[in-house]
Amino acid sequence: AEGRFTGKTLMVTGAAGNIGFATARRFAEEGANVALVDINEEGLRDAVSKIRGGNGVATFHVCDATDARAVDRVVDEIVSRSGQIDFLFNNAGYQGLFCPMHEYPADDFRTVIDINVNGVFHFLQAVAAHMVTTGGGAIVNTASMAGVQGPPNMAAYAASKFAVIGLTQTASKDLAPYNIRVNAISPAFMGPGFMWDRQVKLQAEVRSQYFSADPKTAAEQMIKAVPMRRLGGIAEIPGTVAFLMSEDASYITGVNIPIAGG
Ligand code: NAD
Predict the structure, then answer these.
(1) Which of 70, 136, 158, 213 lies 20 to 30 angstroms, CA to CA, from 129?
(2) Would you call 157 a catalytic residue per the annotation?
(3) Would you list the domain boundaries of the chain?
(4) Structure confidence by residue, pLDDT tens digits, 52-74
């Protein structure tokens, strides 16, 4: 396809998931070659075949974000196939458990930090090292509104997403001399979908003072806190990522854009 990103290569992590897939498909529609990375091989195959079905150019690469060496290998593989990586959408993530601070299991805390912080760092570093040699590029990290204000019962997730925003700010400074822009997006309540359903169910099950124990009521409480009074749709995310990668954002780096309905 011909479009804004014709001749460019986008690497997407978490590409078997909702946001990663929707964004990969959007870039393919706008002409990019898309390299889909995830730990979920079956999901990747499905995502790639859908993009190819729409005449997009897509490859898939199974990789665990927490394994630095596997990340280096996958970046090398994509570079050797595509010539270079122009854009990284650094988006793989895990929401963690829902429970109050004093009960949060340390092993799940470590798992969340390993995927959401170390994983984001591994891809950011490996792709930035490549982009330093090619003359530049653009990176978007997926943070969350949980990385702007910590929600109840999500200690690990909040800590990890605050870290993603910090990494974004420092990376934008370190990489500015190399013509690499680094920004973040922060979705809030997106749905319908797995993350929204899981979040409503688990927030209700905690029985904290913040949400009803009835999932339907808990969902209403969450939506009432949103000025636009509705969930965000997954389809409302890719356009912001595309804007941040595009030349329209050529002087924008180090920012975090909330996609949160106010
Ligand atoms: P999703 O669960 O559909 O997708 C996440 C993907 O990340 C999955 O395909 C999963 O296999 C992959 N992944 C998990 N661990 C991995 C690992 N170790 N290595 C490689 N891949 C791994 O969720 P989504 O809604 O598409 O979420 C994408 C990003 O958006 C995440 O970073 C999430 O924290 C963030 N986010 C989502 C929402 C929401 O409501 N959906 C809100 C705010 C932020």
Answers:
(1) 158
(2) yes
(3) 9-187+237-256, 190-232
(4) 999 999 999 999 999 999 999 99
